[in-house]
Amino acid sequence: MGYKIAIAGATGNVGREMLDILAERGFPADEVVALASRRSQGTEVSFGDKTLKVQTMENYDFSDTDICLMSAGGDISKEWSPRIGAKGCVVIDNSSAWRYDSEVPLIVPEVNADAITGFTKKNIIANPNCSTAQLVVALKPLHDHAKIKRIVVSTYQSVSGGGKEAMEELFNQTRAVFVNDPIEPEKFTKRIAFNVIPHIDSFMEDGYTKEEWKVLAETKKMLDPAIKVTCTAVRVPVFIGHSESVNIEFENEITAEEARNILREAPGCLVIDKQEDGGYITPYESAGEDATYISRIREDATVENGLNMWVVSDNLRKGAALNTVQIAEVLVNRGLITPKKAAA
Ligand code: 2RA
Protein backbone atom coordinates (compact mmCIF):
# COMPACT_ATOMS: atom_id res chain seq x y z
CA MET A 1 0.00 0.00 0.00
CA GLY A 2 1.55 3.32 -1.09
CA TYR A 3 1.15 6.97 -0.14
CA LYS A 4 -1.06 9.69 -1.54
CA ILE A 5 1.07 12.72 -2.37
CA ALA A 6 -0.01 16.23 -3.37
CA ILE A 7 2.30 18.71 -5.08
CA ALA A 8 1.20 22.29 -4.39
CA GLY A 9 2.67 24.69 -6.96
CA ALA A 10 2.94 21.89 -9.52
CA THR A 11 3.26 24.18 -12.55
CA GLY A 12 6.32 26.11 -11.28
CA ASN A 13 10.01 25.37 -11.90
CA VAL A 14 10.35 23.47 -8.62
CA GLY A 15 6.91 21.79 -8.71
CA ARG A 16 7.63 20.23 -12.10
CA GLU A 17 11.02 19.10 -10.87
CA MET A 18 9.35 17.50 -7.80
CA LEU A 19 7.09 15.46 -10.08
CA ASP A 20 10.06 14.31 -12.18
CA ILE A 21 12.09 13.35 -9.12
CA LEU A 22 9.24 11.43 -7.46
CA ALA A 23 8.88 9.41 -10.67
CA GLU A 24 12.65 8.95 -11.23
CA ARG A 25 13.25 7.70 -7.70
CA GLY A 26 10.22 5.39 -7.69
CA PHE A 27 8.76 7.04 -4.59
CA PRO A 28 6.19 4.62 -3.09
CA ALA A 29 3.14 6.68 -4.12
CA ASP A 30 -0.19 5.12 -5.08
CA GLU A 31 -1.52 8.46 -6.19
CA VAL A 32 0.05 11.82 -7.03
CA VAL A 33 -2.12 14.93 -7.29
CA ALA A 34 -0.97 18.17 -8.97
CA LEU A 35 -2.28 21.36 -7.35
CA ALA A 36 -1.83 25.03 -8.21
CA SER A 37 -3.60 28.36 -8.13
CA ARG A 38 -6.87 28.99 -10.03
CA ARG A 39 -4.87 30.52 -12.90
CA SER A 40 -3.35 27.10 -13.68
CA GLN A 41 -6.50 25.01 -13.24
CA GLY A 42 -6.77 22.43 -16.01
CA THR A 43 -3.12 22.81 -17.09
CA GLU A 44 -1.43 19.46 -17.68
CA VAL A 45 1.87 18.41 -16.10
CA SER A 46 3.91 15.24 -16.61
CA PHE A 47 4.49 12.63 -13.96
CA GLY A 48 6.63 9.79 -15.32
CA ASP A 49 4.74 8.50 -18.36
CA LYS A 50 1.44 9.92 -17.08
CA THR A 51 -0.15 13.32 -17.55
CA LEU A 52 -1.83 14.94 -14.56
CA LYS A 53 -4.53 17.61 -14.79
CA VAL A 54 -3.85 20.42 -12.35
CA GLN A 55 -6.52 20.99 -9.67
CA THR A 56 -6.94 24.06 -7.46
CA MET A 57 -5.82 23.95 -3.84
CA GLU A 58 -9.08 25.66 -2.80
CA ASN A 59 -11.20 22.76 -4.02
CA TYR A 60 -8.95 19.99 -2.76
CA ASP A 61 -9.62 18.05 0.44
CA PHE A 62 -6.30 17.05 2.05
CA SER A 63 -7.93 14.64 4.55
CA ASP A 64 -6.85 11.45 2.76
CA THR A 65 -3.48 12.79 1.54
CA ASP A 66 -0.35 11.69 3.40
CA ILE A 67 2.28 14.24 2.27
CA CYS A 68 2.02 17.61 0.55
CA LEU A 69 5.18 18.85 -1.18
CA MET A 70 4.62 22.60 -1.24
CA SER A 71 6.34 25.04 -3.56
CA ALA A 72 3.76 27.77 -3.85
CA GLY A 73 5.57 30.69 -2.19
CA GLY A 74 5.76 31.98 1.39
CA ASP A 75 2.39 33.76 1.59
CA ILE A 76 0.41 30.75 0.39
CA SER A 77 2.40 28.44 2.64
CA LYS A 78 1.77 30.63 5.71
CA GLU A 79 -1.95 30.45 5.08
CA TRP A 80 -2.26 26.86 3.87
CA SER A 81 0.38 24.73 5.60
CA PRO A 82 -1.21 24.88 9.09
CA ARG A 83 -4.60 24.02 7.58
CA ILE A 84 -3.17 21.11 5.63
CA GLY A 85 -1.16 19.94 8.65
CA ALA A 86 -4.33 20.01 10.77
CA LYS A 87 -5.86 17.51 8.33
CA GLY A 88 -3.09 15.06 9.23
CA CYS A 89 -1.18 15.63 5.99
CA VAL A 90 2.53 16.37 6.50
CA VAL A 91 3.64 19.47 4.59
CA ILE A 92 7.23 19.65 3.31
CA ASP A 93 7.54 23.31 2.41
CA ASN A 94 10.04 24.85 0.04
CA SER A 95 9.39 28.49 0.97
CA SER A 96 11.01 30.49 3.77
CA ALA A 97 7.70 30.74 5.70
CA TRP A 98 8.55 28.10 8.35
CA ARG A 99 12.32 27.69 8.23
CA TYR A 100 13.05 29.78 11.30
CA ASP A 101 10.14 28.51 13.42
CA SER A 102 11.54 26.60 16.41
CA GLU A 103 8.66 24.12 16.15
CA VAL A 104 9.43 23.26 12.53
CA PRO A 105 12.45 21.11 11.64
CA LEU A 106 14.63 22.44 8.81
CA ILE A 107 16.12 19.40 7.13
CA VAL A 108 18.88 18.39 4.73
CA PRO A 109 18.91 14.59 5.09
CA GLU A 110 22.71 14.27 4.68
CA VAL A 111 23.18 16.79 7.50
CA ASN A 112 20.49 16.54 10.20
CA ALA A 113 17.99 13.80 9.30
CA ASP A 114 17.54 12.95 13.01
CA ALA A 115 15.97 16.37 13.67
CA ILE A 116 12.99 15.36 11.51
CA THR A 117 11.10 13.84 14.46
CA GLY A 118 10.12 17.39 15.54
CA PHE A 119 7.66 17.55 12.63
CA THR A 120 4.77 16.24 14.73
CA LYS A 121 4.31 19.62 16.49
CA LYS A 122 2.90 21.32 13.40
CA ASN A 123 2.97 18.59 10.75
CA ILE A 124 5.28 20.91 8.80
CA ILE A 125 8.89 20.32 7.73
CA ALA A 126 10.90 23.10 6.07
CA ASN A 127 13.22 22.74 3.12
CA PRO A 128 16.17 25.15 3.20
CA ASN A 129 17.00 27.87 0.72
CA CYS A 130 18.83 26.55 -2.34
CA SER A 131 22.11 28.29 -1.55
CA THR A 132 22.18 26.83 1.98
CA ALA A 133 21.29 23.25 1.00
CA GLN A 134 24.35 22.63 -1.16
CA LEU A 135 26.58 24.55 1.26
CA VAL A 136 25.74 22.45 4.31
CA VAL A 137 26.06 19.18 2.37
CA ALA A 138 29.69 20.13 1.68
CA LEU A 139 30.40 21.62 5.12
CA LYS A 140 28.94 18.92 7.38
CA PRO A 141 31.63 16.22 6.86
CA LEU A 142 34.40 18.82 7.24
CA HIS A 143 32.80 20.24 10.40
CA ASP A 144 32.60 16.73 11.87
CA HIS A 145 36.33 16.28 11.22
CA ALA A 146 37.92 19.62 12.13
CA LYS A 147 35.15 21.87 13.61
CA ILE A 148 34.37 24.94 11.56
CA LYS A 149 34.76 28.33 13.30
CA ARG A 150 33.89 30.76 10.52
CA ILE A 151 32.88 30.74 6.87
CA VAL A 152 32.81 33.43 4.18
CA VAL A 153 30.45 32.52 1.33
CA SER A 154 30.14 34.32 -2.02
CA THR A 155 27.33 32.95 -4.17
CA TYR A 156 26.91 32.96 -7.94
CA GLN A 157 23.20 32.12 -8.26
CA SER A 158 21.42 31.17 -11.45
CA VAL A 159 18.26 32.92 -12.60
CA SER A 160 16.06 29.81 -12.22
CA GLY A 161 16.17 30.52 -8.47
CA GLY A 162 13.97 33.51 -9.29
CA GLY A 163 11.37 31.40 -11.15
CA LYS A 164 10.24 30.94 -14.73
CA GLU A 165 9.86 34.68 -15.45
CA ALA A 166 13.43 35.30 -14.36
CA MET A 167 14.63 32.64 -16.81
CA GLU A 168 12.57 34.25 -19.58
CA GLU A 169 14.06 37.63 -18.73
CA LEU A 170 17.61 36.34 -19.16
CA PHE A 171 16.65 34.67 -22.44
CA ASN A 172 14.86 37.73 -23.81
CA GLN A 173 17.56 40.18 -22.74
CA THR A 174 20.30 38.01 -24.25
CA ARG A 175 18.40 37.94 -27.53
CA ALA A 176 17.80 41.70 -27.30
CA VAL A 177 21.54 42.33 -26.99
CA PHE A 178 22.21 40.46 -30.24
CA VAL A 179 19.43 42.11 -32.25
CA ASN A 180 20.09 45.51 -30.70
CA ASP A 181 16.64 45.86 -29.08
CA PRO A 182 16.21 48.06 -25.99
CA ILE A 183 16.52 46.27 -22.64
CA GLU A 184 14.07 47.05 -19.84
CA PRO A 185 14.74 45.14 -16.60
CA GLU A 186 11.48 43.72 -15.24
CA LYS A 187 11.95 41.13 -12.50
CA PHE A 188 15.60 41.98 -11.94
CA THR A 189 16.59 45.44 -10.74
CA LYS A 190 19.30 45.80 -13.39
CA ARG A 191 20.09 44.13 -16.68
CA ILE A 192 21.02 40.47 -16.08
CA ALA A 193 22.23 39.50 -19.58
CA PHE A 194 26.06 39.73 -19.76
CA ASN A 195 26.07 41.21 -16.25
CA VAL A 196 26.03 40.19 -12.56
CA ILE A 197 23.79 41.68 -9.86
CA PRO A 198 24.94 41.76 -6.19
CA HIS A 199 21.39 41.68 -4.87
CA ILE A 200 18.96 38.77 -4.26
CA ASP A 201 15.74 39.21 -2.24
CA SER A 202 15.00 42.34 -0.19
CA PHE A 203 17.45 44.56 1.70
CA MET A 204 17.53 44.38 5.49
CA GLU A 205 18.34 47.16 7.96
CA ASP A 206 21.98 46.11 8.38
CA GLY A 207 22.68 46.35 4.63
CA TYR A 208 22.67 42.60 4.02
CA THR A 209 20.01 41.06 1.79
CA LYS A 210 17.48 38.51 2.99
CA GLU A 211 19.15 35.89 0.78
CA GLU A 212 22.46 36.49 2.59
CA TRP A 213 20.74 36.34 5.98
CA LYS A 214 19.10 33.03 5.05
CA VAL A 215 22.50 31.41 4.45
CA LEU A 216 23.59 32.53 7.90
CA ALA A 217 20.43 31.60 9.84
CA GLU A 218 19.87 28.26 8.13
CA THR A 219 23.50 27.11 8.39
CA LYS A 220 23.37 27.81 12.11
CA LYS A 221 20.01 26.03 12.57
CA MET A 222 21.03 22.89 10.69
CA LEU A 223 24.77 22.58 11.29
CA ASP A 224 25.90 24.44 14.40
CA PRO A 225 24.77 27.74 15.97
CA ALA A 226 28.38 28.45 17.00
CA ILE A 227 29.65 28.79 13.41
CA LYS A 228 30.17 32.39 12.29
CA VAL A 229 28.85 32.96 8.79
CA THR A 230 29.06 35.92 6.43
CA CYS A 231 27.75 35.96 2.88
CA THR A 232 27.48 37.99 -0.33
CA ALA A 233 24.76 36.67 -2.67
CA VAL A 234 25.04 37.49 -6.37
CA ARG A 235 22.78 36.72 -9.34
CA VAL A 236 24.64 35.63 -12.48
CA PRO A 237 23.44 35.06 -16.07
CA VAL A 238 23.29 31.27 -15.78
CA PHE A 239 20.00 29.39 -16.27
CA ILE A 240 20.45 26.51 -13.81
CA GLY A 241 23.05 25.74 -11.13
CA HIS A 242 24.18 27.79 -8.14
CA SER A 243 27.91 28.13 -7.45
CA GLU A 244 29.61 29.21 -4.25
CA SER A 245 33.10 30.27 -3.34
CA VAL A 246 33.57 29.22 0.28
CA ASN A 247 36.40 30.24 2.64
CA ILE A 248 36.44 28.15 5.82
CA GLU A 249 38.35 28.63 9.07
CA PHE A 250 38.61 25.51 11.25
CA GLU A 251 39.31 25.03 14.94
CA ASN A 252 41.61 22.09 14.18
CA GLU A 253 44.16 21.30 11.48
CA ILE A 254 42.96 19.94 8.16
CA THR A 255 44.85 19.73 4.88
CA ALA A 256 43.36 20.10 1.42
CA GLU A 257 44.15 16.44 0.74
CA GLU A 258 42.36 15.34 3.92
CA ALA A 259 39.34 17.47 2.98
CA ARG A 260 39.30 15.98 -0.53
CA ASN A 261 39.34 12.43 0.89
CA ILE A 262 36.62 13.19 3.46
CA LEU A 263 34.37 14.77 0.82
CA ARG A 264 34.95 11.85 -1.58
CA GLU A 265 33.31 9.56 1.00
CA ALA A 266 30.59 11.99 2.11
CA PRO A 267 26.90 11.44 1.26
CA GLY A 268 25.62 13.66 -1.54
CA CYS A 269 29.10 15.01 -2.41
CA LEU A 270 31.08 14.50 -5.61
CA VAL A 271 34.65 15.82 -5.73
CA ILE A 272 35.91 16.98 -9.13
CA ASP A 273 39.23 18.57 -8.37
CA LYS A 274 42.00 17.77 -10.84
CA GLN A 275 43.86 21.10 -10.51
CA GLU A 276 44.33 21.36 -14.27
CA ASP A 277 42.54 23.06 -17.15
CA GLY A 278 38.87 22.06 -16.98
CA GLY A 279 39.42 19.81 -13.94
CA TYR A 280 36.59 21.46 -11.99
CA ILE A 281 32.82 21.70 -12.23
CA THR A 282 30.76 24.56 -13.64
CA PRO A 283 27.03 25.18 -13.04
CA TYR A 284 26.15 24.23 -16.62
CA GLU A 285 27.44 20.71 -15.96
CA SER A 286 25.52 20.40 -12.67
CA ALA A 287 22.10 20.97 -14.27
CA GLY A 288 19.89 17.89 -14.08
CA GLU A 289 22.25 16.18 -11.61
CA ASP A 290 21.69 15.31 -7.95
CA ALA A 291 25.17 15.74 -6.49
CA THR A 292 26.72 18.64 -4.67
CA TYR A 293 29.98 19.07 -6.57
CA ILE A 294 33.13 20.31 -4.88
CA SER A 295 36.16 21.61 -6.78
CA ARG A 296 39.18 23.90 -6.24
CA ILE A 297 39.88 22.61 -2.70
CA ARG A 298 43.01 24.34 -1.45
CA GLU A 299 44.65 25.59 1.72
CA ASP A 300 44.25 29.26 2.62
CA ALA A 301 47.59 30.47 3.95
CA THR A 302 46.14 33.79 5.16
CA VAL A 303 44.41 32.21 8.19
CA GLU A 304 45.19 29.39 10.61
CA ASN A 305 43.56 26.12 9.53
CA GLY A 306 41.93 27.67 6.48
CA LEU A 307 40.55 26.03 3.33
CA ASN A 308 38.93 27.45 0.20
CA MET A 309 36.62 25.55 -2.10
CA TRP A 310 34.10 25.87 -4.94
CA VAL A 311 30.68 24.26 -4.42
CA VAL A 312 28.18 23.80 -7.27
CA SER A 313 24.76 22.15 -7.46
CA ASP A 314 21.53 22.18 -9.46
CA ASN A 315 19.49 24.67 -7.42
CA LEU A 316 16.17 23.24 -8.61
CA ARG A 317 17.16 19.74 -7.52
CA LYS A 318 19.35 19.56 -4.37
CA GLY A 319 18.50 23.20 -3.68
CA ALA A 320 14.77 22.53 -3.78
CA ALA A 321 12.84 19.58 -5.30
CA LEU A 322 15.31 16.76 -4.67
CA ASN A 323 15.87 17.73 -1.05
CA THR A 324 12.09 17.91 -0.52
CA VAL A 325 11.61 14.41 -1.94
CA GLN A 326 14.57 13.13 0.12
CA ILE A 327 12.85 14.50 3.26
CA ALA A 328 9.70 12.59 2.28
CA GLU A 329 11.85 9.47 1.85
CA VAL A 330 13.21 9.90 5.39
CA LEU A 331 9.64 10.03 6.73
CA VAL A 332 8.78 6.85 4.85
CA ASN A 333 12.03 4.91 5.38
CA ARG A 334 12.07 5.61 9.13
CA GLY A 335 8.43 4.56 9.43
CA LEU A 336 7.44 8.00 10.73
CA ILE A 337 4.22 8.01 8.71
CA THR A 338 2.02 5.20 7.45
CA PRO A 339 -0.29 5.55 4.44
CA LYS A 340 -3.74 6.72 5.56
CA LYS A 341 -5.29 4.18 3.18
CA ALA A 342 -3.58 1.35 5.06
CA ALA A 343 -4.93 2.65 8.35
CA ALA A 344 -8.49 3.00 6.99
C1 2RA B 1 17.07 32.33 -5.45
N1 2RA B 1 17.33 31.44 -3.24
O1 2RA B 1 18.01 31.76 -6.00
C2 2RA B 1 16.40 31.78 -4.23
C3 2RA B 1 15.51 30.63 -4.59
N2 2RA B 1 15.08 29.90 -3.45
O2 2RA B 1 16.59 33.39 -5.81
TrEMBL record:
Phosphate binds at R99. Pathway: Amino-acid biosynthesis; L-threonine biosynthesis; L-threonine from L-aspartate: step 2/5; Amino-acid biosynthesis; L-methionine biosynthesis via de novo pathway; L-homoserine from L-aspartate: step 2/3; Amino-acid biosynthesis; L-lysine biosynthesis via DAP pathway; (S)-tetrahydrodipicolinate from L-aspartate: step 2/4. Keywords: Amino-acid biosynthesis, Diaminopimelate biosynthesis, Lysine biosynthesis, Methionine biosynthesis, NADP, Oxidoreductase, Threonine biosynthesis. Pfam families: Semialdhyde_dh, Semialdhyde_dhC. This is Aspartate-semialdehyde dehydrogenase. It comes from the Bacteria. Substrate binds at Q157, R235. Its EC number is 1.2.1.11. Gene3D superfamilies: Dihydrodipicolinate Reductase, domain 2, NAD(P)-binding Rossmann-like Domain. One of its GO terms (molecular function) is NADP binding.
